[in-house]
Amino acid sequence: MDGPQRAEGLYDVAIVGFGPVGATLANLLAVDGLSVIAFDREPTPYALPRAVHFDDEVMRIFQTIGLADEILPFTHVSPGMHFVDGDGRLFLDWSRPLQVGPNGWNASYRFHQPDLERVLRAGASAHASVDIRLRTDVFALDQRGDHVAIRFESLANGRLDEARARYVVGCDGARSLVRRLIGSDVEDLGFHEQWLVVDAILKRPKPELGDYSVQFCDARRPATYVRSIGNRRRWEIAVMPDDDARRITDPGNVWKLLARWITPGDAELERAACYSFHSVIASAWRRARLLIAGDAAHQTPPFLGQGMCAGIRDAANLAWKLGRVIRGEASDVLLDSYQTERHPHVREYIELAVRLGSLINATRVEGREAGAEPRRMATIKPRLGPGLFRRGCAVAGTLAPQPMLSNGCRLDDHVGYRFAALVRPDFLDGLDIAIRESCGKRGIALVAAGPGPLSNWLDSVGAHAALVRPDRYIVGLAQTPQELSALIDTMNQEDFG
């Protein structure tokens, strides 16, 4: 579709690649009032499943763009993951709570990626400020002072054209053109393996497969089972040195590998393909007006289910910063905090996924004794790297909770896509007119934390007020109105330190 440009023919942001990360970014930018042009080579979302998991933080981002309720029917709440040894004994239990958690959503969701992409694309196309160009190949980006010239070809008719945008974000995958034009090297974190990915659709119930994802830590043939939505099931099976990788996707070979779980009478194969799993991070995520996100910036083995999640977190971190810079509320130095915050955060996830990959491939499980109780694995929620929050505050750089308010509204819906000061009612009553006016001028929502979860959280962190960013990360805490005022004033700085 061709949407409207600004009068001067200049878009605020161009997005190269319109998969889940690019489409989420387009939605966030549109919610923030920016004009967007998005490009993708393909006319429709890829028809087969790829990513199969996202978490509560990602669902919270979908809530921010107003699409969580549309996405929810296409999901299945997951109870978590089990790790079993070569004898089938459970030794590591990563169960996830089935009740709604602190982020206002369940901890783990399974989904079918084509369904998700359709909702995200429809959401973006509903914004008049978003111009989507499908079947379009971007082949050149020229930085010209205050904008980038984007040269592209229509794959429908071969026509060459050009658009202009203030910034360009490459969400264009592992072979990213935008990353190459930035001139970024990639750091190799040491995991490179070939695995067979099999998606199957059950013909009849197989309750013995279970709802848990299962990591089969068996050096003879490591494998992963994933319960997806409806009748969809996935297996990821390691390709071993003696395998003929060219023939392993033949149906006969696939069914031999699946024989321990299902037979052709139980399911039909939807897809069998070999993938190379990698662990890499780009060294530079920005050069002037060019930025990258998602697989263009980092790739992870799938054992934590955090690949797509990481890309969508990139989008959430970057979108509001682009908005502040483009509106003149901050200098473009603010955009440097995107990599300083996200790079260490995503690296922690990738390194854990690599360690789990090594565990899955282990010839034996260290410390495992017959009859021993399985260890339990804790939920991982890393802190952001250095950036726009108070480093001396223990909870700054982590997500603020999202309780249901007394009026039945979720906190983020009440706040909207902006900064928020969460304050005790008596603290709010004590704020002078200057602080209130400062919040008003800067678009900061003042939210009174009446009796209940929000007040309890402030108790738990020992604060009377908390300043929260549009991406729901905590800037810092305050005990007095003066401390809150000082915290608000630091929003004009590029680095809180």
TrEMBL record:
Transmembrane segments: none annotated. Keywords: Oxidoreductase. Residues 11-351 form the FAD-binding domain. It comes from the Bacteria. It holds the Pfam family FAD_binding_3. This is Bifunctional 3-(3-hydroxy-phenyl)propionate/3-hydroxycinnamic acid hydroxylase. It comes from Bradyrhizobium jicamae.
